[in-house]
């Protein structure tokens, strides 16, 4: 699989794909996209890198075990879920939104953090699965 | 905030499972967190129970979306009672897991998944939305797949495949039933469905959806023609896992059947006949299965099936007395079945086997322990005044009054079989002299454990036995509670009014 074309393309594709995944994550509340798809795209970025440059290099870019992202993402989602209970005296999972939208990112609210949590969990779990399988090959 | 306390059990377990994932490799820490967390969850469950007991059904509209549109969590008496029972068994099993489950299993996130399972169970009991019920069922079966296959022994994987295939099939049928039902009424809120299903003219389709639900939940709760996965899989995982499966997983199916058939398809004559026939066949096949088994765990598994029949039959009778009996039996059954599997785990630890032919002399060497074990066994049979006795009165009375003599006979047959099998088990395991067999050498026997480690085996059993004793001797309280739940179930307007705020 290690052709020169794939190798040079992947070094450009990695940042582009990661940026694209964040774009999909942010537009996800009203438009197609969201944490799940964004997370998959981000995972694909790393998988592509692992294909072209080898598993060890991809792991080096990531710096920590991808499995760690699962509890982190889950806690982000969990906190966003219970935040209305804590801050606003509303039932669980109610969306709390900031009044003024921020440029580029758009409106900020607890559903965004929920999506970020999903994003991290999806990256973590899919990379853990794929890395574990390719290690055992 | 005060209305929202019924979702606290969910929040506690979700928090614990996430916390445990952070400490993936620190097993001792995980054990402590899990036990302390389950004690906390027990406290929360008691709080929720007393709150709902004193101030009536609580409804939480998650996401602040009003009732027929958003997902609601409904804490009526039935739901919070089951949440309390889940907390009690979860607490006992988490203590039992600390030493009895080997490290090779614990290190794959056993405790984290265990809390996800409890989360799913609590969610299934509390939700008031039928699609959300499906989602909780998925959480339950995904976590139970992990628990049943963790460790990866050959026999275990064989059991897991059977369990996986049939439960997945059950979920598929459940989803199909949901689709049919949604096509008929156009809503997923159970209270709203209950109102709108009365207006549906096409009764054939309504009955089709009812039968689909029956098949889906029937597989999960192991009723007559659909129970074969249970004896094939429940004995393979460690006893702690079998205990939580036996106590709660099949009962979730029973809970769903009770909820659906009281709230949505109440008192349909076709379903009554169908349920009653299935109940009688379940009692017979479970009882006859139990009598020929020699492995203690397998005997207990067939008892699960046999006693599911009692509850399904009571549900089919559809009177308030029968329903009180069903609820009382459910309460008794969850505690007792969990305890039986913990006991089988203890016997395995003492002797290294659960085969009755190879066991013996337990009373001679462990007299106090044997007396402790005798209490749940006698309660299972229903010797007065222990806990199994009281619900059977209600069930037998209701079946006699309804002139359902076949079910009446099946109840007596089921009790008799239980008595015979337990008598056989007692004489084989406890009174018979230890036969000459070769004990496995590489095995940590019970008497080689330290005192604290022994306590993790005995304390959960003693705790659950104490609860059983309370159910038996404090039967008045439990009967009152069951009657109250039965009244709530039979008058579905109470549930609908609470959810839709009419």
From TrEMBL, chain A:
So where does this one cross the membrane? 12-30, 36-55, 67-88, 108-133
Q: Which GO terms describe its cellular component?
A: plasma membrane
Instruction: Tell me the InterPro entries matching this sequence.
Output: CPA3_antiporter_subunitB, MnhB
Q: Kindly indicate whether the keyword Transmembrane belongs to this entry.
A: yes
Pfam families attached to this UniProt entry = MnhB (PF04039)
Q: Does the keyword Zinc apply?
A: no
Membrane topology summary = Multi-pass membrane protein
Indicate where this protein resides in the cell.
Answer: Cell membrane
Alphabetically list the UniProt keywords: Cell membrane, Membrane, Transmembrane, Transmembrane helix
Residue stretches making up the Na+/H+ antiporter MnhB subunit-related protein domain: 5-127
Chief location of this protein within or outside the cell: membrane
Protein family per UniProt: Belongs to the CPA3 antiporters (TC 2.A.63) subunit B family.
Which protein, by its recorded name, is this? Na+/H+ antiporter subunit B
Source organism: Psychroflexus aurantiacus
UniProtKB/TrEMBL annotation, chain B:
NADH:quinone oxidoreductase/Mrp antiporter transmembrane domain residues:
129-418
Cell compartments where the protein resides: Cell membrane; Membrane
Q: Which domain of life is it from?
A: Bacteria
GO annotation, cellular component aspect:
plasma membrane
Query: Which Gene Ontology BP terms does the record give?
Result: ATP synthesis coupled electron transport
Q: Name one GO molecular function term.
A: NADH dehydrogenase (ubiquinone) activity
Q: How does it sit in the membrane?
A: Multi-pass membrane protein
The residues that cross the membrane are 6-25, 32-53, 73-96, 108-127, 133-152, 164-185, 205-228, 240-264, 270-292, 299-318, 324-348, 369-390, 405-426, 455-473
Chain segments annotated as coiled-coil in the UniProt record: none
Arranged from A to Z, the UniProt key words for this protein are: Cell membrane, Membrane, Transmembrane, Transmembrane helix
Pfam families noted in UniProt: Proton_antipo_M
Instruction: Extract the InterPro entries matched here.
Output: CPA3_Na-H_Antiporter_D, NADH_UbQ_OxRdtase, ND/Mrp_TM
Q: Which family does it belong to?
A: Belongs to the CPA3 antiporters (TC 2.A.63) subunit D family.
Name the record gives this protein: Na+/H+ antiporter subunit D
The protein's organism comes out as Psychroflexus aurantiacus
Taxonomic lineage: Bacteria, Pseudomonadati, Bacteroidota, Flavobacteriia, Flavobacteriales
